[in-house]
Every structure is written in C-alpha cells, then in structure tokens.
Amino acid sequence: MKTLFINILIFLVLVLAFDTISFWLLPARYVSQLKEYRRDSRPEVAGRNRYPRHYFVKHPQRGFDIGTNRQAYHWVEGVTYPIWSNSIGCFDRE
C-alpha cells in the first residue's frame, strides 16, 4: 500500500511539473489554438498589434466597421479584456 501511494504521488508531481513547464514554455502558435488554457499577454491581433483579428469587416464607405455578432479580446497596457458586437454590429448588448 505504501509503495502504491508513493507511485501515485510521484506520478501526480510529474504531471503537475509537466503542466507547469508547458504552461510557460508552450509557443504562442500553439497557445492560440488553446485559448482557455492560457491567455497570452498579446492576443491574436491584426495590423500593428492594436486591433483584434476578425473583429472588423470591410465597409464600402468607411473602409472598415465592426462585424456583426463578433467576439474577440483586446489588449491595452498588459490588460486583456473581452470585446463583442451585437447583431447590428454595435459594441453593445442586444
């Protein structure tokens, strides 16, 4: 019984160590596929690292506008927060 407990404890410590190391060393291209695992300090953005990718759409007169029913993350000075649009393309709740 004691040997089984020690083996389980060693296994749990190794899994915890692997997960901790993976959390910090996993490259950003893999993290972008696992959005709920780790939020990168710089979310996936377009342009010059200012605008969320796929949040805006082309507009014939203005050049671009907020797309309808979009969700993304925005990043300002190290703080990441969710942004969204409603069914008419406004940054507002329905």
Q: Mean pLDDT across all residues, rounded?
A: 78
For the largest sheet, list the strands in their spatial order.
1-2
**SS elements, strand count:** 6
Determine the number of helices (DSSP H or I, runs of at least 4 residues): 2
The total domain count is 2
Order of helices and strands: HHEEEEEE
Q: Assign the structural class, choosing from mainly alpha, mainly beta, alpha/beta, alpha+beta, or little secondary structure.
A: alpha+beta
Kindly estimate the percentage of residues that lie in beta strands according to DSSP: 25-35%
User: Which term fits the overall shape?
Assistant: elongated
What gyration radius follows from the Cα positions, in whole Å? 20 Å
Major β-sheet profile:
2 strands, antiparallel
The termini sit apart by 59 Å
Low-confidence stretches: none
Helicity, as a percent range: 25-40%
What can you tell me about this protein's structure?
The chain is an alpha+beta fold and 94 residues long. The chain folds into two domains: 1-32; 39-94, no CATH class. The protein contains two helices and six strands. The protein has helices at residues 2-25, 28-31, and strands spanning 45-46, 51-52, 56-59, 63-66, 71-76, 79-84. The strands form three sheets. It has a two-stranded antiparallel sheet with strand order 1-2. A two-stranded antiparallel sheet has the order 3-4. The chain has a two-stranded antiparallel ribbon with strand order 5-6. The chain is elongated, with a radius of gyration of 20 Å. The model has no long low-confidence stretch (mean pLDDT 78).
